[in-house]
Amino acid sequence: MADVVLRAEELHKRYDELEVLKGVTFEVDRGQVKVIIGPSGSGKSTLLRCLAMLEPPDAGHVYLETQQLTALPEKALAPHRSEVGMVFQRFNLFQNMNALDNVMCGLVEVRKLGRREARERALEFLGRVGLADKAHQYPEELSGGQQQRVAIARALVMRPKAMLFDEPTSALDVELVREVLDVMESLAREGMTMVVVSHELRFAHHVASSVLMMDEGRIVEEAPPDEFFSSPREERTRRFLSLVE
Amino acid sequence: MLASFDTHLFWEALSSSPYWRGALLAIALTIGSMAAAVVLGFFLALGRMSRRRAVRGFVFGYNWLFRATPTLLQLIFIWDALPQLWPVFSGAWFKAWLAAGVALSLNEAAYMAEIIRAGLLSVDPGQEHAGRALGMTRRQILRRVVVPQAVRIVIPPTGNEFITILKLTSLASVISVQELLTAAGEQASRQFKFAETYGAALVYYLVIVSILMVLQSRLEKKFTWKSGGRRRVTAPAVPAISHDAR
User: Fold this and answer.
1) Nearest-CA distance from A37 to chain B in Å?
2) Domain A4-83+161-244 - what CATH class?
3) ipTM of this predicted complex?
């Protein structure tokens, strides 16, 4: 049996009248990179937020390795959330902390590391995203691409079992997209388990183990990138790809 | 020079000990009431955003009660009516200055609650999501992320409230607290020289408020998140003088 890191089983989620997830089953194995595409409102972000346990699904289950997260009460969930890294479209850095403190925060508050050790490790991870020299800059002094790399370092430093990316480049100016994708590609090469919601099709083509198409709260199609892009089975996927490219 | 302005008497009043002590009492009353109001207002603000309906209802009722009635009436009520309702308050320990402090604290808390709530709401909820994704608890996020950022938003209106409360301490003269206006009033009725005696009190208020304004602008600069020496006041400029007639 494959080594499953994250698994969603028959997830349902609705906001008032709107049913956003209509029974989604999804899993990602260790070292796999899954890229999810689909129109806005198709439920991609909601799926990620359920996987990160930021929002409880109305029905269905989420498993992190063998642990069923949906069975846990809110208090017990917090430590499990730290095992799944999340990167947001709008970076969401803590504005009152410089880059270093942003990366240290989880180590100090959640992992209860001493400040010296946390600092060392944070600097190491800032170096990995190429921002060691920006450690003492505040978010508003950094470009969007730099902020997103700090956000990636902040999630990575917790040594998560999987990383979730929610449209990590769609709030960025075109010339800043590359630096973020480069960091993500090298992560993938190092074997990080990743789920990426993104419309960067070239990235998906190069890096993904498989690509998924979501529409109206369901996964419509899943296939390895070569097959997905050259000969998609579903009409819905074909129409969407023709619009994006 | 003005026809009947006795400069000597003015300087004498300005440097007399009742004025000094009145001013110190006014400052102490202001600082004490504001400190209590900030703490109480913080919890009222959290209560206002509570998921429990009863808690929200209580806070709404509190804010309504203290903002819809005159501060002077609240002060007199606490000083005169409370001891009749609860005998505990008729003890010698319940001093006039204490009654004034309680009235001003409770009253100001209702205003601070709204100011603090606005500050807490001004912090982008995305940062809270990021904190939760890191595994931080709601309390950790509040303490490390939300409150420090809310402070910056809350400082300018709180400066206004400080000034308002300082001036409202003069209401305590009606329950015979020996604050600045009481000192001036007593001096005035002894000498029948109103311009000099009340003028001296005006000078005290002006000096105290000016000091407060300087402190406020220093504090604002401290709470801008920038690495270098290049500082920038990001909070919107709010006129430092408030004139609501509570």
Assistant:
1) 22
2) alpha beta
3) 0.92
